[in-house]
């Protein structure tokens, strides 16, 4: 969350850090993913394979949305769904929370 806050302060839209603080009340931390979630995440062919566990954890916990600013890893996945998990940039997720999309 700290990294997200720093990024929003540097380049996010107005009100985004406040929206993140509100969203933090409903954000759940999850444990490491296991097989088969890891296998599903590997099929996504991320730009940075070190981020496979992040996507796998989102898949395993049946997250509705995975929010990332990591364009190197997730660039081609932004705006798509992987195994039921929608991948969004932080800005797009906050715009949705703020009702701008």
Question: Which helices and strands appear, and what pairs or packs with what?
Answer:
Layout: H1 2-11, H2 16-23, H3 37-43, H4 52-60, E1 65-67, H5 71-74, E2 81-82, E3 85-88, H6 90-97
Structural summary, described in words:
By secondary structure, this protein is mainly α. Helix content is 46%, strand content 9%. The protein is built from six helices and three strands. It has helices at residues 2-11, 16-23, 37-43, 52-60, 71-74, 90-97; strands at residues 65-67, 81-82, 85-88. Strands 1-3-2 form a three-stranded mixed sheet. Strand 2 and strand 3 (85-88) form a beta hairpin. Helix 2 packs across helix 6 (90-97) and helix 3 (37-43) crosses helix 4. The longest helix is centred in the N-terminal third of the chain and has 10 residues, at 2-11. It is globular. It starts with a helix and ends with a helix. The mean pLDDT is 90.
Which class do the helix and strand fractions yield?
A: mainly alpha
Q: Report the portion of residues in β strands.
A: 5-15%
* Mean pLDDT score: 90
Shape: globular
Helix and strand run: HHHHEHEEH
Alpha-carbon distance between the two ends: 23 Å
Descriptive terms for the model:
101 residues, mainly alpha, three-stranded mixed sheet, 6 helices
Short description:
The chain is mostly helical and 101 residues long.
């Amino acid at each position: 969350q700290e990294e997200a806050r720093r990024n929003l302060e540097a380049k996010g839209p107005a009100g985004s850090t406040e929206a993140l603080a509100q969203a933090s009340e409903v954000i759940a931390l999850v444990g490491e993913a296991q097989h088969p979630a890891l296998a599903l995440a590997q099929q996504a062919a991320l730009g940075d394979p070190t981020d496979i566990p992040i996507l796998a954890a989102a898949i395993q916990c049946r997250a509705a949305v995975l929010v990332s600013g990591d364009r190197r890893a997730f660039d081609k996945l932004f705006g798509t769904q992987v195994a039921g998990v929608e991948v969004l940039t932080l800005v797009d997720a906050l715009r949705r929370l703020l009702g701008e999309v």
